[in-house]
């Protein structure tokens, strides 16, 4: 887009430079593009000798013989300051149309405006061209300088100029200096410009001014309510400052409008439900998008769903997801969690089977697992097996005391039912 814009500027510059415009017309154009209090010099036209060479160069240009046109212009030797500035301007304008000649073009254009001998319209147009070329060539400080020169000369308020200045400040990481020109650009824009607001937000964000960052992003959401990116970005900013309630409401609104289209966004919503003590919704939203394929079916996600169901006391669902996760990860701890979930809903056989898988998988929580299997067996009326697990739990110092306290109770229950241990 920038290259297309510059090509247009250069063509206009070339044509206006080569055509001999009557003095009265020059005066009218010049008066229109400079500040009212600007002290104008005498309006000039190229001398006859220079004018002839310029005419020949223009003929070559019209035949797309750019190199020939440049060779003609390079031959111009004049001590007249206006003719020299005029010729340098033409050379610079032609060089700007050639690939890889941007920096050289800038040097000629700088020389053309330095003595301030060009007519007002030419001076203003060339200054702007220098700025645009400098931006393209990543010479950002030069671009800023010449955009400011153009503003000072013309006294105009122009969205594109202020926007490009802000962008140049961004490229040089002078984040604080973005604000003044981008505010001007925003105020001058005929319709709201997302990129302008993004630059303003970035200025605050890179300076860790998160309150101001959020204020800009809130305004952006109000202006562009149908832009999904603005909603999710606002939600993540709320999370950054740990305002979890606002983050949740923002993500919920985004979700209701179908704006959550990335795995990270769905995970964020699930996480926010957990942070706001709504684990059942945390589980269901993550389960929905794991099933749809948006969120990858992996151990960490399945475990998270299982954990959220467990917090919601939905133990059968919890056991189901812990089991799926354990199969993927071959993690004995997950089988232990599955076993405890089954135990919570009195599915003792399933609990014991899952806990045995934890033991067989090499869990280092042997005492705790035997203690859990003891309790499941006891509640299932299998006192003999419960007693066996109690003896195993006694071998682990972390569960020994608890297991010893269970032994006489198990023996008593077995004796009352004439069961030999």
Can you offer a commentary on this structure?
The structure is a single chain. With 421 residues, this protein is mainly α. It has 23 helices and no strands. The chain has helices at 2-18, 23-33, 48-62, 66-74, 81-95, 102-113, 120-136, 140-154, 159-171, 179-188, 194-206, 210-223, 228-240, 244-256, 263-275, 279-292, 299-311, 315-329, 332-344, 348-360, 366-379, 383-393, 400-416. Helix 1 crosses helix 3 and helix 19 (332-344) runs antiparallel to helix 20. The longest helix is centred in the first third of the chain and has 17 residues, at 2-18. The relative contact order is 0.04. Mean pLDDT is 89; it is low at 1-32.
Task: Summarize the topology.
Blueprint: H1 2-18, H2 23-33, H3 48-62, H4 66-74, H5 81-95, H6 102-113, H7 120-136, H8 140-154, H9 159-171, H10 179-188, H11 194-206, H12 210-223, H13 228-240, H14 244-256, H15 263-275, H16 279-292, H17 299-311, H18 315-329, H19 332-344, H20 348-360, H21 366-379, H22 383-393, H23 400-416
Helix pairs in contact: 1-3, 1-5, 1-7, 2-7, 3-4, 4-5, 5-6, 6-7, 7-8, 8-9, 9-10, 10-11, 11-12, 12-13, 13-14, 14-15, 15-16, 16-17, 17-18, 18-19, 19-20, 20-21, 21-22, 22-23
């Amino acid at each position: 887009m920038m290259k297309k814009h510059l090509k247009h500027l250069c063509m206009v510059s070339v044509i206006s430079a080569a055509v001999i415009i009557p003095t009265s017309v020059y005066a009218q154009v010049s008066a229109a593009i400079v500040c009212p209090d600007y002290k104008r010099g005498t309006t000039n036209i190229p001398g006859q000798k220079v004018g002839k060479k310029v005419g020949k160069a223009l003929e070559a240009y019209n035949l797309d013989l750019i190199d020939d046109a440049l060779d003609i212009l390079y031959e111009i030797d004049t001590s007249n300051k206006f003719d020299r500035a005029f010729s340098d301007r033409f050379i610079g304008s032609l060089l700007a149309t050639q690939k890889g000649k941007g920096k050289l073009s800038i040097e000629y254009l700088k020389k053309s405006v330095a003595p301030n001998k060009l007519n007002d319209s030419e001076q203003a147009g060339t200054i702007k061209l220098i700025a645009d070329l400098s931006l393209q060539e990543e010479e950002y400080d030069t671009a800023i300088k010449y955009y400011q020169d153009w503003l000072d000369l013309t006294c105009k308020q122009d969205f594109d100029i202020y926007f490009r200045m802000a962008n140049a400040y961004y490229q040089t990481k002078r984040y604080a200096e973005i604000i003044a020109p981008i505010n001007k650009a925003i105020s001058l824009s005929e319709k709201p410009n997302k990129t302008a607001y993004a630059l303003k937000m970035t200025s605050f964000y890179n300076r860790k001014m998160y309150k101001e960052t959020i204020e800009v992003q809130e305004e952006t959401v109000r202006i562009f309510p149908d832009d999904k990116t603005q909603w999710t970005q606002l939600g993540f900013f709320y999370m950054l400052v740990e305002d979890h309630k606002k983050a949740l409401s923002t993500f919920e609104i985004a979700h209701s409008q179908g704006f959550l289209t990335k795995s990270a966004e769905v995970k964020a919503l699930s996480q926010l439900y957990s942070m706001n003590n709504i684990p059942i919704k945390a589980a269901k939203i993550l389960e929905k998008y794991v099933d749809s394929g948006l969120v990858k079916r992996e151990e960490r996600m399945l475990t998270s769903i299982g954990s959220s169901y467990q917090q919601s006391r939905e133990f059968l669902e919890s056991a189901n997801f812990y089991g799926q996760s354990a199969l993927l990860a071959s993690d004995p701890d997950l089988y232990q969690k599955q076993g405890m979930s089954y135990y919570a809903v009195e599915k003792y056989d399933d609990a014991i089977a899952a806990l045995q898988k934890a033991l067989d998988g090499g869990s280092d929580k042997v005492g705790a697992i035997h203690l859990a299997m003891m309790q499941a067996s006891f509640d299932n009326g299998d006192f003999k097996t419960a007693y066996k697990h109690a003896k195993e739990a006694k071998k682990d110092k972390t569960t020994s005391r608890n297991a010893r306290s269970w032994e006489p109770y198990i023996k008593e229950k077995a004796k009352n039912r004439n069961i030999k241990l």
